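Entry type: protein chain
Record version: 2
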Amino acid sequence: MTLSEELQWRGFANQTTLHDITELDQRKFTLYFGVDPSADSMTVGNLAAAMMVRLFLQHGHKVVLLVGGATGMIGDPDGKAEERELKSLEEIAHNKAGIASQYRTVFEGMNFELVDNYDWFKGINYLDFLRDIGKHFSMTQLLDREFVQSRIGEGGKGISYAEFSYSLIQGYDFLHLFREHGVTLQLCGADQWGNSLSGVELIRKLEGKEAHVWSTPLVINRSTGKKFGKSEDGAVWLDAAKTSVYKFYQFWLNVDDEGVLDYAKIYTTLSQEALDALAEKVQTAPEKRDAQKLLAHEVTKLVHGAERTANVEKVTDVLFGDTSIDELNDIELGVLAEEIPTTSTNTSIVAALAASGVVGSNGEAKRLISGGAISLNGQKITEDTQIDKTALLKKGKNTFVLVR
């Protein structure tokens, strides 16, 4: 399968300035993709675009990955109803380090160049920038942008000169990378289409050369019609300190049947043959959730590594499968303890339930036990007993207590 064919098959094709997308198959581009350090971690939304970048790398294109230290000082106004709060230089530096680290993880073993646009913006003179760059931007074009219209129109919150200028800064990034690295293609999400065109125009006007943009659609949750990548706790992050490895794995394990194959095309490197076989399993036995299990395994392994993936899979099997808690090692017990209420051993079942907060009183615990609503290590119990070793209590279908 050629690159242009695979981009379309996997769902990475949206808008492009290329006259013929088979140009991607006929010559090798030097391209760039950037993320602003608005946080110290990327989300699964950013990961979708990164998977598209991986595809270009696999097909032999040269990639420059940008961390937006300069653009992060302003903040992209697109999609925002009101002015962003400026971040301190210290916070931006911390966030840049987090993004750069995740780039290295997601693209491990692949050749790419990492750059920071603060490196070339920190020495630019303001008047020179206005003369050399601002002179070539049309105010009419910028005012026509949808995000500007929404901010200055009736009911809008207004927009500062700083945020209004964001598109010029990103346009200059493309021009600089064209001049210094030979970049002639920018990859972006659909929401960055307008900003990316700024660079194409600058290169055309100042260098008399042609440059292009390729954008990927935003991933949509097929069952809700909303932007993909949110859990009950909010955004799903790649950083385990923001979204634990267990919760990250569970997010993928619980995606909807309707969209799971689309997500697998985007977020894994599985072949068309493998995904066709998976589609057949979804069709014949959707209740087994084979597609969700494979998707969760592949994405968690990419982001968090094989060992941590194996840990959370084993913990999941203890909670929802047939694996005994006795099979968990100390690391896996630690993972479990971070996700469910935990109490100490040498206690009774009633006391453990009450101490964990899953019941309101000892009396409620006794009633649940006598009613057969409590299990100990997978076995229903009908009377209170003492727990003197690591054990798992379960109330109903999804409420657990670890005793260790």
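Comment: The longest strand covers residues 30-35.
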